[in-house]
Design brief:
By secondary structure, this protein is an all-alpha fold. The protein contains four helices and no strands.
Length: 71
């Protein structure tokens, strides 16, 4: 995902970040989950997807528990 993001391919980067997130959640890698959510939030910000960016940020702030951001 990082390589795609560096080259401006944000949609492709998001796809890889989301795949990584699913794997990290499945194996219980909390640090990896945090890294993936952060990367997703950054890519969403580049794409102008404010609601998605805020959702990823809120999950990070609440320790992995999804919240309704109301955007």
């Amino acid at each position: 995902g990082r390589l795609h993001r560096a080259h401006g391919s944000y949609q492709q980067a998001l796809a890889f970040y989301r795949r990584s997130l699913a794997i990290q959640e499945q194996i219980g890698d909390k640090y990896g989950v945090i890294q993936s959510l952060n990367a997703i939030a950054i890519a969403d910000s580049f794409l102008g997807q404010k609601q998605e960016m805020l959702k990823a940020g809120d999950i990070l702030r609440t320790g992995g528990r999804p919240v309704d951001v109301g955007c």
